[in-house]
């Protein structure tokens, strides 16, 4: 078995028993990146020097006979919207092409303190706006299961890297589905934590009331290990919640008898591939056979989630992205005639077309005279969606749905029609509007492409999601199937 296919738990044992050194492990992953990334294109920056230095520190610790923490020596990578001190952080945008942050995001610091080894920074849709990673200002990332298809987005690099065994785990960010939708497309596990559980300090903002950082991993257990390391209160993020932090790995028990699972009928609606539905119905039967109580239920305001999301997300983005003006950092145009043209030209040159589209949409929705009709209406719809979930969770511990209505689409298939692209997030955006946690995990295949199952829980019920996910994973083998790329060349 290749070392790069292993889980956090397996690698931890190999390191502690000195069967492998942290340096050998880091070198193994760097070699894997070198061999497959020219095809996958998950990485914007590979931080070889940092990785080897961090691995060396872990080896020194091992040599002193000290015990290792769960993530110590484990090679990982970060989405390129997470600030890394002294390491280029682009958000996949030309406007931040030359940006080298003077500080770390809180999650970067937490993983550093946990001893994880940083392999590099990962491609994404520019400013996390997109569902395919085709909106990157640099290049598109490919799906390891089929190089002609998208990996999903916006965390396409984070997810493709895990699926192609280029990192043990990665972090992504999820504003409307950007961890879960690509996790579904690439057959890995991705969690969008409860809003406020993981500090957003140092995450380059897209839509601040929706953004959350979360782990992308090969297994549910790995996901819990990473969440343990990154969750927790942070004084630098005023929306970060101060709660006693559980040990999420304690939720990894197989007994789910009596677990109440609701299946919202609205998530099996129009645009859904019938073969994807078949996979999900089979997953439901698996849960029933494990003793869960499964029932159809309704989230009646689901149809308003998409329009509400695209108004709120773009409104917040238009405000967040006002700071990129060429004055303080990032790209500045070469030939400004005056200060106004400096702002305008800098932004015209620096932002891609999807980002511009969203700034315009958001500015329009917030403008005097339209605010009540659009933004305020969207916020009211958001409240109805929150109530739908509150009511459902009075009756159910977990809600279950497909993560996406289809499997991964072809590169270029949806790029000329933003509306059909937006629809690939129809099952994921309501979760961000409600601020609840949701986990996507492998549930089967359609024509050789992975299908994702989404498990949703009430606020701060990540443990319940891990429990439900772990039981499913232990009783199925979808997570063990690898894209043929791992055997040296994709199909
Ligand atoms: N695809 C959605 C969008 O384009 C979600 C993106 C995200 O979660 N960052 O806004």
UniProtKB/TrEMBL annotation:
Enzyme class: ligase
EC number per UniProt: 6.3.5.7
GO molecular function: ATP binding; glutaminyl-tRNA synthase (glutamine-hydrolyzing) activity; transferase activity
Pfam families xrefs: Amidase
Keyword Secreted on entry: no
Keywords attached to this entry: ATP-binding, Ligase, Nucleotide-binding, Protein biosynthesis, Transferase
Reaction(s) catalysed by this chain's protein: L-glutamyl-tRNA(Gln) + L-glutamine + ATP + H2O = L-glutaminyl-tRNA(Gln) + L-glutamate + ADP + phosphate + H(+)
Catalytic residues, chain numbering: 79 (charge relay system), 154 (charge relay system), 178 (acyl-ester intermediate)
Superkingdom of this protein's organism: Bacteria
InterPro entries recorded: Amidase (IPR000120), Amidase_dom (IPR023631), AS_sf (IPR036928), GatA (IPR004412)
Gene Ontology, cellular component aspect: glutamyl-tRNA(Gln) amidotransferase complex
Gene Ontology biological-process entries: translation
Residue ranges of domain Amidase in the record: 25-465
Subunit (UniProt): Heterotrimer of A, B and C subunits.
NCBIfam families: gatA
PANTHER family in alphabetical order: GLUTAMYL-TRNA(GLN) AMIDOTRANSFERASE SUBUNIT A (PTHR11895:SF151), TRANSAMIDASE (PTHR11895)
HAMAP family in the cross-refs: GatA (MF_00120)
Name of the protein in its database record: Glutamyl-tRNA(Gln) amidotransferase subunit A
Source species of the chain: Desulfitobacterium dichloroeliminans (strain LMG P-21439 / DCA1)
């Amino acid at each position: 078995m290749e070392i790069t296919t292993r889980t956090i738990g397996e690698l931890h044992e190999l390191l502690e028993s000195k069967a492998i050194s942290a340096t050998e492990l880091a070198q193994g992953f760097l070699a894997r990146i070198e061999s497959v990334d020219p095809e996958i294109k998950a990485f914007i920056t590979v931080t070889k020097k940092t990785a080897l230095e961090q691995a060396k520190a872990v080896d020194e610790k091992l040599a002193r006979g000290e015990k290792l923490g769960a993530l110590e020596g484990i090679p990982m990578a970060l989405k390129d919207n997470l600030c890394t001190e002294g390491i280029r952080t682009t958000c996949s945008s030309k406007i931040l092409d030359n940006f080298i942050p003077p500080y770390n995001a809180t999650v970067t610091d937490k993983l550093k303190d946990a001893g994880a080894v940083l392999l590099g920074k990962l491609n994404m849709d520019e400013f996390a706006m997109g569902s395919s990673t085709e909106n990157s200002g640099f290049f598109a990332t490919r799906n390891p299961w089929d190089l002609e298809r998208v990996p999903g987005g916006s965390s396409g690099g984070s997810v493709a890297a895990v699926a192609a065994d280029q990192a043990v785990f990665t972090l992504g960010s999820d504003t409307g589905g950007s961890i879960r939708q690509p996790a579904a497309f690439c057959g890995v596990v991705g969690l969008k934590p409860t809003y406020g559980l993981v500090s957003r300090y140092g995450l380059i903002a897209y839509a601040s009331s929706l953004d959350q950082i979360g782990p992308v991993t090969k297994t549910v257990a790995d996901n819990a290990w990473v969440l343990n390391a990154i969750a927790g209160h942070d004084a630098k993020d005023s929306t970060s919640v101060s709660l006693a932090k559980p040990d999420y790995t304690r939720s990894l028990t197989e007994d789910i008898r009596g677990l109440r699972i609701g299946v919202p009928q609205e998530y099996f609606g129009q645009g859904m591939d019938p073969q994807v539905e078949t996979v999900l119905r089979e997953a439901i039967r698996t849960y029933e056979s494990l003793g869960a109580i499964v029932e159809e239920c309704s989230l009646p305001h689901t149809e308003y989630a998409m329009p509400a999301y695209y108004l709120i997300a773009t409104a917040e983005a238009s405000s967040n992205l006002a700071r990129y003006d060429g004055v303080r950092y990032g790209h500045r145009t070469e030939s400004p005639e005056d200060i106004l043209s400096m702002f305008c030209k800098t932004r015209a040159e620096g932002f891609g077309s999807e980002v511009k589209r969203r700034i315009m949409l958001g500015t329009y929705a917030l403008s005097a005279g339209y605010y009540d009709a659009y933004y305020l209406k969207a916020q009211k719809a958001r409240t109805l969606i929150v109530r739908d979930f509150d009511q459902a969770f009075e009756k159910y511990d977990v809600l279950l749905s497909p993560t996406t209505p289809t499997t991964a689409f072809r590169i270029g298939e949806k790029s000329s029609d933003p509306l059909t692209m937006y629809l690939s997030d129809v099952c994921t955006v309501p979760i961000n509007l409600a601020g609840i946690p949701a986990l996507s995990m492998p549930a089967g295949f359609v024509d050789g492409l992975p299908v994702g199952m989404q498990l949703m829980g009430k606020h701060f019920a990540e443990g319940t999601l891990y429990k439900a996910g772990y039981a499913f994973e232990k009783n199925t083998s979808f997570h063990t199937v690898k894209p043929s790329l791992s055997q040296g060349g994709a199909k």
